[in-house]
Design goal:
Elements: H1 2-24, E1 30-33, H2 39-45, E2 51-54, E3 57-60, E4 63-64, E5 77-80, E6 88-91, E7 102-107, E8 113-115, E9 118-120, E10 127-132, E11 138-140, E12 143-145, E13 149-154, E14 160-162, E15 165-167, E16 176-181, E17 187-189, E18 192-194, E19 198-203, E20 211-213, E21 216-218, E22 223-228, E23 234-236, E24 239-241, E25 246-251, E26 257-259, E27 262-264, H3 268-271, E28 276-281, E29 287-289, E30 292-294, E31 298-303, E32 309-311, E33 314-316, E34 320-325, E35 331-333, E36 342-347, E37 354-356, E38 359-361, E39 365-369, E40 378-380, E41 383-385, E42 390-394, E43 400-402, E44 405-407, E45 411-416, E46 424-426, E47 429-431, E48 438-441, E49 448-450, E50 453-455, E51 462-465, E52 471-473, E53 476-478, E54 482-487, E55 493-495, E56 498-500, E57 504-509, E58 515-517, E59 520-522, E60 527-532, E61 538-540, E62 543-545, E63 549-553, E64 561-563, E65 566-569, E66 571-575, E67 587-588, E68 597-598, E69 602-605, H4 611-614, E70 650-652, E71 656-658, E72 661-667, E73 674-678, E74 684-685, E75 691-694, E76 698-707, ...
Parallel strand pairs: 1-2, 2-5, 3-6, 4-7, 5-8, 6-9, 7-10, 8-11, 9-12, 10-13, 11-14, 12-15, 13-16, 14-17, 15-18, 16-19, 17-20, 18-21, 19-22, 20-23, 21-24, 22-25, 23-26, 24-27, 25-28, 26-29, 27-30, 28-31, 29-32, 30-33, 31-34, 32-35, 34-36, 35-37, 36-39, 37-40, 38-41, 39-42, 40-43, 41-44, ...
Antiparallel strand pairs: 67-68, 70-72, 72-75, 73-74, 73-76, 76-77, 78-79, 80-83, 81-82, 82-85, 83-84, 84-90, 85-89, 86-87, 86-90, 88-89
Length: 960
């Protein structure tokens, strides 16, 4: 009986061993093909998972790995045994009919690999390897020599073509290395492709997800990479060298990503053709970033394109670095376009494009918007440095040129031609030009130059010639030949400019009917303002000071009106004719030195003894008693004199406190005849130093108004009055920021004040402690109220404000029991009851603030003693007659507290709660590692093996 048992055990073990071997080892086979043998015969005899190994030799004939759907031939490997593809050659049979698509054809298959061969001689309509309607195949480490098509994929997905060599030694410039047609997720990497017509050709929107990376593509007669109607393809890290027409060409293609490619062309100066490094035609929403493109006619070129992003590329040694035509809403950002003939070039109706953050250096022209260019382009925040002719050159209209730095160019920014109008130049820095800084020429009319800085240019800072009706405002022109030069240009407005340390400050030459007002012209070596053959200009409200000569008028500069200017120069005037007017009739209004009448000019001298500095004004109107005629050809019948303006100033004894708040106001004014106070609560006073009482909480603006006979001056500050309870019983803490005029940053705190009703009308007997914080609230900005005194559980309150409220108070009350304003309580365990109020009643609502966050803390001992699940701790807000749990998350901890933040739509009574754990003694077991697989069904026949093992164990148990 024992012998029988042993035999049974042996049978079971043998069955187990046989099943294991049959399940785990499989039935895959190696099929070897010797020279003179047939690769096709090996394929015909193969099954799925087989490997066909071809020994070195030359094999002629086409190979079909397609079969049909019923007879699968998947997971097949066709490989050369040699590591040198040149040893194992497959020569195409070009006598095959038109149905033959490839020297090796793979159709309807999955996981087929072809590697290690030289595949050669395929005619123009045949591919070396042809893949159709399958997936997940690999073609690698092959040589494709003189094939019409190297590798062609059509409707074939998720495949790999890598480390192959595609070349031609005959019929140069024909065929395509790799042709991808409607084949998504194709990975093409590490290939070398040369002497074809197109290196890589991708067509169809179904090629989405394909990646073309790390390939070397050179000397192809059309394009290195050609994409037609392609979508969602990535071209990355490819090297494209000396392809004849285009390095990379996208036609009708969208949402592709071109990054880190290196494109080197041979431009027309070398081979007489029109070449493009990266060329887009009728393509949109593509991203072109971190590429280099050089030695082309166009480094990067857009033709009829929109919404593309060109970012962080380097384009150099091209005729045009980045160029476009008929293209709209593209973004050219942070590129380096150095050493091109033209760095960035827009022509033919380009509109709505953004040119921002680029470096354009050492070109003939840095950035050029031609006269054929469209409108509404933004040229912003670029650096144009050391360009031979122009830093930025504009010949079109309605564009914005702003925040650029043009330095060391021949001309910094140049606007030219009748089509150049309604442009805005603002906040540009133009310096160290060898010619003019900013120049408008040849009927460049109706342009705006605002807040530019033109500094240390060898020519003129701003120069207008034959340009009319422009607006030159708030510019700084320093250290130039002429700060602002207007020549043969009429009806321009020059306002609020600063022109110091030039040879001349502002010059009008043959320029009529211009207006110069509110400019400051100072420290110029020759003339502050120079009028040469300039007629009928208005010169008013200017400060012309510390120049060699204040104003020069040649004999032909007539009919100019010069009044209400401040002259203080070595020589104030050099007038060569008597036909200009130096005053207007006495007119009520504040003049340039603060007097109450406008008439003539203020005539000072740098020694302090000028006419207006010493003249009498018996009527006290700011007009001298005598006529000013101290200079040749100048008569000013209403010269101005110095006036003493009143000064409005005061001190408040306090700017915040609890109602009733007593504020002593002390007058510190000067030169005032009359004074009045507006306390901001509807009451007024004319006392010099009034004491005022604020009985109700709120923010009040005190306005102190002083007058003399000619002027009214005022000063204001804010008084903040808080609600206060006069029955101190508990501790209250106050933190704030204030100074004597309500705008400083000093702080104060106190811990001796008692809790009271505050603005919440809470019973004082229910208030354990209170803390108050103040901050200034400005619309559109974030504000944070900190509570550093630890009087309550609240750490801070923050939100984004939608309105201006000025200094605002936030009060936190910690309560003994729930607020009298609330009813009921949440069902969870309660940690603390709180009231939180922000500002005056009605302010803290969603229409006034958003993104409100409340940070609070919970003592660890409460969590431990009450066996609270810390993940359940929640801040609840009382609103609409019920408690609403708020989104709450843990933000940190220290030795004593856990800290949490909660998002709240407003402020009212709150309660902090937590849930007790269901079983405090329960130990939580960590979850299994997600990366550790427990699924054993992947092993063939696992259930049977397990069954046999169990039977064996049962038998042995019974045997015992």
């Amino acid at each position: 009986m024992e012998e029988l048992d042993i035999n049974i055990i042996k049978i079971l073990l043998l069955a187990y061993l046989m099943f294991t071997l049959s399940s785990c080892v499989g039935t895959a086979a190696e099929i070897h093909v010797q020279p003179g043998g047939s690769i096709q015969a090996a394929v015909n005899s193969a099954k799925s998972d087989d490997t066909i190994i071809v020994e070195p030799g030359t094999y002629t004939g086409n190979i079909d790995i397609s079969r049909d759907y019923a007879n699968n031939l998947n997971n097949l490997v066709l490989m050369a045994s040699s590591s040198n593809p040149g040893d194992t050659i497959i020569v195409a049979d070009n006598t095959a009919g038109p149905t033959v698509k490839g020297v090796i054809s793979i159709k309807y298959k999955t996981h087929v690999t072809v590697k290690g061969f030289t595949i050669t001689g395929a005619r123009n309509d045949i591919a070396g390897v042809y893949l159709s309607q399958g997936k997940q195949c690999t073609v690698e480490n092959n040589i494709f020599l003189n094939d019409g098509l190297g590798v062609k994929l059509t409707s074939f997905t998720d495949s790999v073509v890598r480390n192959n060599n595609f070349n031609r030694t005959s019929t140069f410039g024909t065929g395509t290395g790799i042709d991808i047609e409607q084949s998504g997720n194709t990975m093409v990497s590490g290939n070398s492709i040369s002497n074809q017509n197109n290196g890589i050709h991708i067509v169809g929107s179904n090629s989405k997800g394909s990646t073309i990376s790390g390939n070397s593509i050179s000397q192809n007669t059309n394009s290195g990479i050609l994409m037609e109607s392609a979508k969602g393809v990535t071209l990355s890290g490819n090297t494209l060298n000396a392809n004849k027409n285009d390095g990379i060409y996208l036609s009708f293609s969208a949402e592709n990503n071109l990054t880190n490619n290196n494109v080197l062309m041979l431009n027309s100066a070398v081979n007489g053709t029109n070449t493009n490094g990266i060329n887009l035609y009728n393509s949109k929403s593509n991203t072109i970033s971190n590429n280099t493109a050089s030695s082309a006619d166009h480094g990067i070129f857009f033709n009829t394109c929109e919404n593309n992003v060109v970012q962080n590329n380097k384009v150099s040694s091209n005729l045009y670095g980045i160029a476009m035509r008929y293209s709209h809403k593209n973004k050219i950002i942070n590129n380096n376009a150095d050493g091109n003939k033209e760095g960035i070039y827009l022509t033919w109706e380009d509109s709505g494009n953004t040119i921002s953050g680029n470096n354009v250096n050492l070109c003939d022209v840095g950035i050029h918007l031609t006269n054929y260019c469209g409108k509404n382009n933004l040229v912003d925040n670029n650096i144009a440095n050391s360009n031979t002719f122009y830093g930025i050159y504009v010949e079109t209209n309605n564009n914005v040129i702003s925040n650029n730095h043009a330095t060391g160019n021949s001309r910094g920014i140049y606007l030219l031609g009748s089509g150049c109008y309604d442009n805005t130049l603002s906040n540009n820095i133009v310096d160290f030009s060898t010619g003019n800084g900013i120049r408008l020429a040849n009927t460049s009319n109706h342009n705006k130059l605002v807040s530019n800085s033109v500094i240390s240019n060898s020519g003129d800072g701003i120069y207008l010639v034959n340009s009319n009706n422009s607006y030159i405002d708030s510019n700084t022109a320093r250290g130039n030949n002429i700060g602002i030069h207007v020549e043969s240009s009429n009806k321009n407005i020059l306002s609020s400019n600063v022109a110091p340390y030039n040879n001349m400050g502002i010059r009008l030459y043959s320029a009529d009917n211009n207006s110069l007002s509110n400019n400051t012209v100072s420290y110029n070596a020759l003339d502050g303002i120079d009028l040469n053959s300039a007629v009928s200009n208005n010169i008013t409200d200017n400060h012309i000071i510390w120049n060699e000569k204040g104003i020069f008028l040649c004999p032909k500069s007539i009919n100019n009106l010069i009044y209400n200017n401040y002259f203080n120069n070595t020589e104030n005037t050099d007038a060569k004719n008597t036909r200009c007017t130096w005053y207007i009739g006495k007119t009520k209004g504040k003049n340039i030195v603060g007097g109450s009448y406008i008439g003539g000019n203020f005539w000072a001298h740098i020694n302090g003894d000028g006419f207006s500095q010493t003249a009498h004004d018996s009527e006290g109107e700011g007009i001298a008693d005598a006529v000013y005629d101290k200079e040749v050809n100048v008569i000013d019948r209403l010269p101005l004199v110095s006036v003493v303006l009143p000064v409005a100033d005061f001190r408040a004894s306090t700017t915040q406190g609890y109602a009733p708040l007593y504020v002593q106001l002390t007058d510190l004014s000067q030169n005032a005849i009359s004074k009045s106070w507006d306390f901001g609560d509807g009451t007024n006073s004319t006392e010099q130093n009034p004491m005022h009482t604020y009985s109700k909480a709120g923010n009040y603006t005190v306005n102190f108004i002083v007058n003399d006979k000619n002027n009214t001056i005022s000063k204001a500050t804010t008084i903040t009055v808080l609600d206060y309870n006069n029955n101190p019983t508990n501790v209250q803490s106050i933190s704030s920021s204030s100074d004597s005029d309500g705008s400083g940053s000093s702080s104060f705190s106190s811990s001796s004040e008692s809790a009271g009703v505050g603005s919440s009308n809470e019973l004082h007997s229910n208030v354990v402690s209170k803390e108050i914080s103040q901050a200034f609230i400005t619309s559109g900005k974030s504000v944070k109220f900190d509570f550093p005194q630890n009087a309550t559980s609240v750490v801070y309150v923050s939100f984004d404000s939608k309105k201006n409220t000025g200094k605002t108070t936030t009060i936190v009350e910690m309560l003994k029991e729930k607020s009298i304003l609330a009813s009921g309580l949440p069902s969870e365990a309660v940690y603390k009851h709180l009231n939180i109020w922000v500002g005056n009643s009605g302010f803290a609502t969603p229409k006034d603030l958003e993104n409100a966050v409340l940070c609070f803390k919970v003592e660890k001992f409460w969590i431990q003693d009450n066996k609270i699940d810390q993940s359940s701790i929640t801040l609840n807000r009382y609103c609409d007659k019920e408690w609403n749990p708020l989104p709450t998350s843990k933000s940190g901890e220290d030795d004593k507290y856990l800290y949490f933040t909660a998002q709240t739509p407003g402020f009212s009574p709150f309660v902090i709660t937590g849930k007790m754990t269901a079983n405090p003694n329960t130990t939580v077991t960590p979850a299994n590692d997600k990366n550790k697989s427990t699924d054993t069904t992947g092993m063939p026949g696992f259930e049977i093996i397990s069954g046999i093992t169990i039977l064996l164990a049962v038998f042995l148990y019974k045997r015992k």
